[in-house]
Design a protein that fits this description.
Jelly Rolls; nine-stranded antiparallel beta sheet; eight-stranded antiparallel beta sheet; membrane; EGF-like domain; FA58C
């Protein structure tokens, strides 16, 4: 329906052919009055008739009264509407959600370059009627039931409200049993308290609330819908919904006598825990289909009206918004004050931690009074000699309105914030203002301040107790301003909805938000990327050895990580998932009527276990079952007497094999049962012990979730059983590959569904100079990843802000027929592109741009959908999108020009090169590139070792730190950068020494930070990390007296520090120690005597570099340095045989992160045999260790003083937790 409208220009200049403002208008806008509140669904614009004037983009605001305005934003948060490109065409814009309003305001952003602003508008929608009631903070509506109590299992409550107060009760009802329902505004958010007969909650002093919404005290209408069925509840505020379940066993809500709306008439009733009554307006209030306001207006007896009015005449407070952190200001002249001094009061709200709020020049220069927000507190500064400062308030940047008052009368300065006690400072002389008062920043001619300018909203300004009319400022009658919006508080909650993934904590300032990913197991701008590998097989490919690791089977998906044991043998890599009942269990006295039942809880969730099983090539679980006079099956009717439940809680009665066979044991499958008349040894019902152990390997049934034993009630009858851990090997996704033989061929998959975030990773190898890896299109949006030239990989996309391009160039060509890794990620904060180990490229998203990626076509792999783009020729493997691996091999089987798998020696699951060595295809075989490995030899398994004495040292100097790089893109507001620091540092080395204390390794940065690993006198190895001149002592590694045992310990350390811009790494004695602490200096002077072997730092092998590049400027060698085979000799059985009691071996894994320092220490004692048991222990080391004694500052006794110790220390990736 076309709406009648009246247009009012922001100036007096109108024309018959449309609206056009005066050239001098500072903030032009066109305002539309619809006459009454309407429901607006769309708008259309057109340029001024027969002219070169039009508006190419604009903002849309709405208001009920024409005073308090609110910006309309589309679903993705963008507020910019596309306008016209000429004066005659009509451009329609459908609103993502309808607006119920009387006034609309069109604010131009861009317009015709060949003319001027010109606008004609149409508004589409329909009429809107509502029942309205107003509450004054002391009034309420009571809906009284026909009976004493109302018991409901289903409730639907809906209403709309608006208020300028952040606190207030909208709805309350309670019953004598303890049930209650309360809906209240608290700190500008909506809290729902709901209890259905839960005694624990009745006794609780702090009931738990479900919270939805934010900034709901903005004087604009907000819709609320509560839907409850039994314990399932949906709470919706505007477009945000929270789904939850009530606690306890109750299913019905029992409320006595009445429901109150707008407040509680009798405060202090049992169960009441609320603050204050609601002050504002409600409309269309329905309780289970009953129109409460209509009943009240018609004075029905079941409604008691307590001093309410049936209209909404809330005063509209005029606020102004400070938009710029550098140039926004409001200048107001000082009002006369006969008593001397001056006073200023106002209210403000902001998200920023810092900002200049108010300043004024005083009568004697250079005195100046400034009020600013500093680290979320208010700081009042009087710039004189001496300076006077006072601080007040806490978290004043929480987005809520705060009242502040500054009074300099009566020879004192008084600062008051909200309801806190005032802070008063006496003065020697009366302060007088000289000139104007500035709010926010100030003009460059009046002040010079380095403080950032206030960004936020200000309202209710009083100067010397006189109110300030901001309309006069806007009209040019009073004061001056810059970069302000009037009649609105245009604040946004950028953490609603929370776009931080995987439980990341969202924080914000005025223009953006950030995510704290600490403790989530994920990283990145929105906590999207998992820190862990997807499988044990993936860890093996990184050069890791056996141990406990956190794996994330669905990558960046919702599942999360789980801790498993990775047993990396020569033939296979086993993933081991343990459960809670590992010891053998003896069962007696059970029967079918009273069976023995044992449930198994695994270290991973059911979803994680299923993902691991699906990803694996093979899984199995051992069942050890020993019986005596106890049958598995009834010999009469064949019904099972014992059974187990599979992962789906289904009953299974077979006891071995990979194919489910009813009522069979392993002996039946192998044909060696003791009694050939039975399918199980136990069914012979013998008085002697029998064994029906077997291996379960049918993946769809694994793991065993429960076992039931029902035949041990007879005399002499018993069973001893043991259910082993779930064990899987192989990763089907890693080598899932396809070969593309024709440029016109491609694999088709469903369209990518990833509006807000996605990541794509894969490996490729090719000899072609270019080709499209994958592409997904829609009408406007698209994504494309391609090899654009022999050395360049390009990631391009468009989410509605114009095409954006990221490129990574490799110096050696990428079409060398070797495997190369590509990973792209896009989220609402940034996009990134990774190629092999080249520096990561980033592209920041526009602050207020479109967020949602809308794709409609199929995903093309191996070719673009545009005919002129060249298809890909070569191999692609391990293609994963947001943690889901695409099955290339199956698609290739039904696609012409594409074949499953990829030929070549380096394309199989068998690792031909070890310890991070890279397999390189040759025409007649392969070679191993060990340049990024700390090992050498044909397959990168030969240890590289060096003997040190006290004066020996090796320093590897890294190239100058990566600088921030700009990437040319058509997206001008965006910035591309190359990562200047890693999210973690991965280090590994092994050593043999009899010296204590000893300096093992130090890492220094260009910013005077360092990390040191030291072997202390008592055999512990502490790690020190100093960042920003603060030393963090992390842990001790106890290395002595741990012989013939394998011990695994896990450490998690949290730090807000960052080890960035790494400059050098030193092995052995440290010469320059200006920035080191005293304890580290003492160890550094001792140097190191012994053998260092296989040193790895990230992707650099500094020890090997020192041996192979002795003349390099990057390597500095001091003292004697002799290449040796001491590392290999240390692991030889002949070397260890004669000194077995004196040799201890330890393996330690450590990772240092940017936002969190998470450390994993794996101690592994090795002797001649390698089949020792493995134990996992948790260790929390106290921070008050006596390190000075350990390093030798104080004499100490060491029982193993003369025994030589071999220690393998590996600082490994975060996944190895």
């Amino acid at each position: 329906e076309y709406l009648w409208l009246t247009a009012r220009a922001s100036t007096n200049d109108t024309a018959a052919g449309g609206w056009s403002p005066e050239i001098s208008d500072r903030q032009p806008w066109l305002q539309v009055d619809l006459g009454e509140r309407m429901e607006v669904t769309a708008v259309a614009t057109q340029g001024r008739f027969n002219s070169q004037d039009w508006v190419s983009s604009y903002l849309l605001f709405y208001s009920d009264t024409g005073r308090a305005w609110k910006q309309h934003r589309q679903e993705d948060g963008g507020g910019r509407f596309v306008g016209n490109v000429n004066s005659e065409a009509v451009v329609h814009n459908k609103l993502s959600h309808s607006v119920r309003t009387r006034f609309l305001r069109f604010v131009p952003l861009d317009w015709s370059r060949s003319g001027w602003l010109g606008l004609r508008v149409e508004v589409y929608g329909c009429s809107f009627k509502s029942d309205v009631v107003s509450f004054d903070g002391g009034s309420s509506l009571l809906y009284r039931f026909n009976q004493k109590s109302m018991s409901t299992v289903k409730d639907v409550i809906s209403l709309r409200f608006k208020s300028r107060q952040a606190e207030g009760v909208l709805l309350h009802g309670e019953g004598q049993r303890g049930d209650y329902i309360t809906l209240e505004l608290h700190e500008g958010k909506l809290d729902l308290h709901l209890n259905l007969d839960d005694s624990r909650l009745r006794l609780s002093s702090s009931p738990v609330a479900v919270t939805v919404g934010s900034l709901l005290d903005d004087q604009h209408w907000h819709s609320v819908l509560i839907e409850r069925f039994n314990r399932q509840v949906n709470l919706t505020v505007d477009s945000h919904t929270q789904h939850f379940q009530t606690k306890g066993e109750g299913l019905s809500l029992d409320v006595d006598y009445e429901l109150s709306f707008g407040g509680i008439p009798l405060p202090g009733k049992p169960g009441t825990f609320l603050r204050k009554n609601f002050q504002g307006c409600m409309e269309n209030l329905y309780y289970n289909g009953i129109n409460i306001i209509d009943l009240a207006k018609r004075r029905k007896p079941q409604i008691h009206s307590g001093n309410v009015t049936f209209s909404c005449s809330q005063p509209q407070l005029g606020a102004c918004t400070f938009l710029s952190s550098s140039s926004s200001f409001l200048l107001l002249p000082g009002a006369a004050n006969t008593t001397g001094g001056f006073s200023v009061q106002f209210q403000f709200r902001t998200w920023n931690q810092d900002g200049l709020l108010f300043s004024v020049q005083l009568n004697s220069e250079p005195q100046r009074l400034e009020l600013q927000i500093t680290k979320s507190r208010l700081l009042l500064t009087l710039n004189m000699k001496p300076n006077v400062k006072c601080s007040l308030g806490d978290r004043v940047n929480d987005g809520l309105w705060h009242s502040v008052s500054v009074d300099t009368r009566q020879l004192q300065i008084t600062l008051t914030v909200d309801n806190e006690p005032a802070s008063t400072t006496p003065l020697w002389e009366q302060l007088e203002s000289r000139g104007n008062f500035y709010f926010g920043g100030c003009s460059s001619t009046d002040c010079l301040t380095s403080a950032p300018v206030f960004q936020g909203c200000i309202q209710l300004i009083f100067i010397n107790s006189q109110p300030v009319d901001l309309n006069h400022v806007q009209q040019g009658i009073l004061g001056n301003y810059n970069e302000l919006q009037f009649d609105m508080c245009n604040i946004r909650d950028r953490c609603l909805p929370n776009l931080c993934e995987h439980g990341g904590h969202c924080s914000q300032n005025w223009s953006s938000f950030s995510c704290d990913c600490s403790g989530t197991g994920y990283s990145g701008a929105t906590c999207h990327s998992s820190l862990y590998e997807a499988s044990c097989e993936a860890y093996r490919l990184t050069g890791s050895s056996s141990g406990f690791y956190s794996i994330d089977p669905d990558g960046s998906g919702p599942m999360g990580s789980t801790l498993v044991y990775c047993n990396m043998t020569e033939e296979k890599v086993w993933t081991v998932l343990s459960h809670n009942n590992t010891a053998p269990v003896r069962v007696q006295g059970s029967s079918l009527h009273k069976p023995h039942i044992m449930k198994f809880n695994y270290s991973a969730s059911a979803e994680q276990i299923q993902a691991i099983i699906t990803r694996s090539e093979h899984c199995q679980q051992e069942v050890v079952y020993n019986c005596r006079k106890s049958r598995l099956f009834n010999t009469k009717d064949g019904s099972p007497l014992s059974w187990w439940l599979d992962q789906g809680e289904e009953k299974q009665s077979y006891w071995g094999g990979f194919l489910p066979a009813a009522q069979q044991c392993s002996c039946s499958l192998e044909g060696n049962c003791k009694d050939r008349d039975n399918f199980c040894n136990c069914d012979a019902d013998s008085d002697t012990w029998a064994n029906d152990s077997g291996i379960l390997s049918f993946k769809d049934h694994l793991p065993v979730s429960q076992i039931v034993i029902g035949d041990t009630s007879r005399t002499g009858s018993e069973v001893i059983y043991h259910i082993g851990p779930l064990r899987c090997y192989g990763d089907k996704s890693i080598w899932n590959a396809a070969s593309f033989h024709e440029e016109s061929s491609s694999l088709l998959f469903p369209s990518l569904q990833a509006e807000l975030s996605f990541d794509i990773s894969f490996y490729f190898k090719t000899s072609a100079p270019s080709g499209v890896f994958l592409e997904n299109l829609s009408i406007k949006d698209f994504i494309r990843v391609e090899l654009s030239s022999p050395s360049v990989v390009t990631f391009s996309f468009d989410v509605g802000n114009g095409p954006a391009v990221l490129s990574v160039k490799s110096h050696p060509p990428l079409n060398d027929r070797q495997w190369h890794y590509v990973r792209v990620e896009r989220n609402v904060k940034e996009a990134s592109l990774q190629v092999d180990q080249l520096p990561l490229r980033f592209l920041e998203a526009p602050a207020n741009g479109h967020r949602h990626l809308q794709l409609s076509s199929q995903l093309f792999v191996g070719r673009g959908t545009v005919s002129q783009q060249r298809g890909f020729l070569g191999c692609i493997r391990t293609l994963a999108i947001s943690g889901v691996t695409l099955d290339l091999e199956e698609k290739a089987k039904i696609t012409a020009g594409v074949s499953s798998g990829c030929p070549g020696y380096c394309s199989g699951s068998n690792s031909l090169c070890h310890n991070r060595g890279r397999c390189i295809e040759k025409s007649s075989g392969y070679i191993c590139d060990c340049s990024h490995s700390a090992y050498g030899g044909p397959t990168c398994k030969q240890e590289v070792s060096v003997s040190f004495d006290r004066e020996s040292s090796v320093t590897f100097t890294f190239l100058e730190p990566f600088s921030v790089m700009r990437n040319r893109s058509s997206q001008a507001p965006s910035v591309s950068r190359e990562s200047s620091s890693r999210a973690r540092e991965d280090m590994a080395f092994s050593f043999i020494t009899s010296q204590r204390p000893a300096m093992l390794l130090t890492v220094s940065t260009f910013s005077q930070q360092y990390m040191a690993v030291i072997l202390a006198r008592n055999g512990t190895s502490p790690v020190w990390l100093t960042v920003d001149h603060v030393t963090h002592f992390f842990f001790d590694l106890f290395l002595l007296n741990q012989i013939d045992q394998d011990i695994h310990r896990k450490y998690t350390l949290t730090s807000n520090t960052e080890l960035a811009l790494i400059g050098s790494l030193t092995l052995g004695k440290v010469i320059r120690m200006e920035e080191f602490s005293e304890d580290v200096m003492h160890a550094g002077l001792k140097g190191f005597i012994g053998c260092l072997s296989s040193v790895q730092f990230n992707h650099v092998a500094p020890l090997k570099a020192a041996l192979l590049n002795r003349g390099s400027s990057l390597v500095t060698i001091r003292g004697p340095l002799v290449q040796s085979n001491c590392g290999e000799l240390a692991t030889s059985p002949h070397t260890l045989q004669g000194n077995a009691q004196g040799v201890a071996t330890a393996v330690v894994f450590i990772t240092v992160c940017v936002l969190a320092v998470m450390t994993r220490l794996l101690y592994q004692q090795r002797h001649v045999q390698k089949n020792n048991s493995i134990k996992q222990k948790e260790h929390k080391h106290s921070m008050d260790t006596d390190y000075r004694i350990d390093t030798g500052n104080t004499p100490t006794q060491t029982p193993c003083k003369n025994k030589k110790t071999e220690n393998f220390i590996s600082l490994s990736p975060l996944g190895q937790m």
